[in-house]
UniProtKB/TrEMBL annotation:
Record-linked InterPro entries: YheC/D
UniProt-listed Pfam families: ATPgrasp_YheCD
Gene3D superfamilies: ATP-grasp fold, B domain
Highest taxon, organism lineage: Bacteria
SUPFAM superfamilies per UniProt: Glutathione synthetase ATP-binding domain-like (SSF56059)
Organism: Brevibacillus formosus
Protein's name in the database: Endospore coat-associated protein
């Protein structure tokens, strides 16, 4: 059934649960005057009386009585969507972002992460959705409601945070901030109970494990050409065998992020080995005559079982420094993967990784590809995009969960081959701070709303 974009207004009437539709739409939906009909917002349902507005037959304005507003938990007036689904009218969609660390402070309701969610919620402009933030402990499972923070506009055009009790959403976007927060009892209980709700999808659940992603993709002939050879809990023999095949091997934490704990091991042409890594005081490079000594040094304070050993890829360089790409992908409202942004990350001097925190620099991917490939830029851009979309498709299929966004760390070797080093289900947004990537940032945030509308069946 067609979805209609409407201007929602509240009509002061505390005695009748009523909804008033313009006469043209009323007739198009083949409704009857004073018909009793189920009205849904998210997972909340109320039987209301439907009336037609004959004074403004062609207007796109729908009115809801204040009693129905209260019963459904409709948070605010404004642009929304309406559809007749079966024998019920659905208002929405209602999109909830679940996270932790929510406070009562109306100026900083999510603490230091308030600006992050402020930017996410701004993408609702013109979309006709109810978009909000809540925590697992804000849910009232008995009443099907949630205490949520909404980003509202005031009369002067500025934004402010407002808390409302509203219906459980049509769809949930998982932004639990960390693996440790993921393990909290309240989060685990929330996800367990949410799974029992019929037709309430949650996308981007949980965090990826590097080894888990490798196990999913390496056996897949559609994408394994892009996956470096990798081993879990690497023994000294495993590392030695890899170094016989490749001059560089990376030792990486399975659950690491931001480049923490990564060690670059290089086999020297004249004999011996080097181990390079980053500490709080800067980049470190140590020389070893024996691999066994290097191995003992690396794992003196690290658990082997928490690490991977991975084939080192000879990356292309920009001004003598290796670079890779963060490819940000999203699902659109047609449930198709699209690349919203490609940013190049150039390694800092002496750094093991390209992360900004270790001296790396972000450059728009188009700029770097143009500089290196000139007329072949479009071809290389397409190669990266095609590989990224195939990888995202394979990950989602293998994981068996709904994914609306992914951040892939990709690289191009000196032969022009495309590789994937890591997939992130909760990709950071630091690349979008670059002035030339602000438009991509806006598009990325809007795509999250679009995919949520798809999952909500609006």
């Amino acid at each position: 059934m067609e979805t209609f974009r409407m201007r929602l207004r509240f009509l002061s009437n505390p005695r009748i649960s009523g909804i008033i539709l313009p006469a043209t739409l009323f007739q198009q939906l083949q409704l009857r005057q004073r018909q009793k009909i189920k009205v849904l917002l998210g997972k909340k349902e109320v039987v209301a009386t439907v009336l037609q507005d004959k004074r403004n037959p062609d207007a796109n304005v729908m009115k809801v009585t204040t009693l129905l507003q209260s019963e459904l938990g409709i948070p605010h007036p404004g642009l929304i969507q309406l559809k007749l689904e079966g024998s019920a009218l659905r208002i929405g969609p209602s999109i909830g972002i679940v996270t932790t660390g929510i406070r009562r402070d109306p100026k900083q309701p999510i603490g230091s992460r308030t600006s992050f969610f402020y930017n996410l919620l701004q993408a609702q402009e013109g979309k006709g959705v109810f978009y909000y933030i809540f925590s697992p402990t804000d849910v009232d499972w008995e009443s099907n409601t949630v205490k949520a923070w909404f980003l509202r506009r005031n009369k002067s055009g500025g934004y402010f945070w407002k808390k409302h009790v509203t219906a459980m959403p049509d769809v949930v976007y998982d932004r639990i901030p960390s693996r440790s927060a993921e393990k909290h009892e309240a989060v685990q209980e929330f996800k367990y109970r949410l799974a029992s709700y019929p037709n309430l999808p949650m996308f981007n659940q949980g965090f990826f494990n590097k080894w888990g992603v490798h196990q999913l993709l390496y056996p897949n002939p559609e994408v394994n050409e892009h996956i470096p050879e990798t081993y879990t809990s690497p023994s000294l023999t495993t590392v030695r065998n890899l170094l016989r095949k490749y001059p560089i091997v990376y030792l990486k934490p399975k659950n690491g992020s931001l480049g923490y704990g990564i060690v670059k091991v290089v086999r020297q042409a004249g004999g011996g080995f080097t181990a390079s890594y980053h500490t709080g005081s800067g980049n470190v490079k140590k020389q070893f005559s024996k691999l066994s000594s290097l191995y003992q040094h690396v794992f003196r304070s690290r658990r082997v079982s928490a690490y991977l050993a991975q084939q080192g890829i000879p990356l292309m360089t920009f001004h003598g420094r290796p670079f890779d790409f963060r490819v940000h992908l999203h699902k659109n409202q047609q449930n198709e993967w699209v690349v919203s942004c490609t940013a190049a990350k150039v390694a800092g001097s002496g750094s093991v990784t390209t992360h900004v925190r270790t001296g790396g620099t972000v450059i728009p991917g188009d700029d770097l590809l143009q500089h290196l490939f000139g007329r072949q830029k479009a071809l290389m851009t397409q190669r990266i995009s095609d590989a990224s979309i195939r990888l995202a498709t394979a990950i989602e299929l293998a994981k068996g969960i709904d994914l609306g966004e992914l951040g892939l760390d990709m690289g191009i070797d000196t032969q022009g081959h495309v590789w994937m080093f890591e997939a992130n289900s909760k990709p950071g947004r630091s690349i979008f701070k670059h002035a030339r990537l602000r438009q991509a940032d806006q598009e990325s945030r809007k795509l999250l709303v679009d995919y949520s509308c798809y999952l909500a069946n609006f």
